[in-house]
What we know:
It contains 12 helices and 19 strands. By secondary structure, the protein is of the alpha+beta class. It has one domain. The strands form 4 sheets. Strands 1, 2, 3, 8, 9, 10, 11, 12, 13, 14, 15, 16 and 17 form a 13-stranded antiparallel beta sheet that branches. α1 runs antiparallel to α12. The longest helix is centred in the C-terminal third of the chain and has 33 residues. It is found in: Membrane. It comes from Periophthalmus magnuspinnatus.
Amino acid sequence: MTRRSCAIYAVGVICSTLLIVGIGLVVAQVFRTVMHNRLKKEIVLVEGSRVFESWKRPPPPVYMEFFFFNITNVEAVLTGAKPQVTQVGPYTYREYRYKDNVSMVENGTKVSAYNTKSFVFLRDKSVGDPTEDNITTVNIPAWAVMNKLKGNFWKASMVSVWMNSIGAGFFTTRSVNELLWGYEDPLLARLSVISPDVDKIFGLMVNKNGTNDGEFVFHTGEENYLDYGRVVTWKGQSALTFWTTNQSNIINGSDGSAFHPLIDKNERIYIFTPDLCRTIYMEFEKDVEVRGIPAYRFTPPRSVLASKEENPDNEGFCVSPQECLGTGLLKVSPCRKGAPVVASFPHFYLADEKYVAAVEGLSPERVHHQTFLDLNPTTGVIVRANKRAQVNILIGRVGGFPVFTNETIMPVMFLNESVEIDEASAGRVHKLLLIVTVVSNFPLIIVALGAIMLAVFIILLYRAHREKTHSEDETSYSPVSGKEKEDPQNGTYIGMTEKVDGQA
């Protein structure tokens, strides 16, 4: 066997080995499994892990935008006319958030923390000055007191006299700053004299600047990657007590700041939000891309805030059979000290049309009013998010008070809490995804090398076959003599056998 033949056989053995091994690894997904197991071990909430510091202090900037509904026909509303509103905003704040008092508990399998937030006003991203711009809206403290006294005619009549004496009407005009961060309400101030538990300061965001929502305990994800960031308890409770069924009181999912890696399109993303006093869920909507990072967009479906008729699972969110609102609304008075506060998506997006039609000036649009979450499915990292929610007040007839006969859900304000991954964080995610892609696809590289070697093997076989054929063609004719003779006159002389005369 020649050296060339040995080389050809060696190339054949190598290419067949590479193809067999590569295809076997692709089918078994060995490298992908190894990489996924590595992600599950590294994306955990423990000191020194890849994500722990960014979980405690998220680097991307978070912005909070506030939009108010200014009522333009108060006098007409008092006589029964349809409310007319105009949207004013945004008033934008930079939101600084971090986990405070972080400590490992239960032998390091869980972590305790407080979600602390603070806000700084951004004039260049706002429509005006919140200290100067005034908004005419529902007098929420007055309606809260009236709702609290519902059914007690004598106390309601006394408070009605107080309201008239101090000029506290059903609507009020206050600055944006007062409505957000608090002001001393005259009715609450009078009530606080006889009831010390009544806070005389009211504001939609009062006591929420530089404060927290209470202690959270989270799963670290070490025992099961699907539990990464999942809330175990809030304020020491593993379930809520606001609602009428155990299912409605479940605390499930994360707090919205962390999600497990290797997310599937078919799964539901659960988020517990203290602002709504409940757990909500999101479902996959579409594939998106943010700063070159692939992501799945999850959004709350209509069923989250559907009526009990549309979604029987929501019956537990009815405060009582008589206080069960339609689709798109959630009355959160059980966790708002009895105030008639109703939560919804902005402009009653995904709500029954009757709520939109009851207030002139509303126009729900998905692009502006949808809540969504864009998650990279490999790492679970949030690459973009918009949390949008609206605060409404239920107004109508209250015994002892000379007010409206028709019940109306009056929009007061909606917020848009948004975040998008910054360049530095996006770079780190890109690097991690590149490593995951290369390692996971390493068997394909082996298959590609095998295919290249197969091509080389075929070329070598073809050339060897061709050379062998050419050699056989050259040796198929044998000359009569070892060398040709030259005729000095006529060129080449070809010798021929002399003819023998038979008669000689």
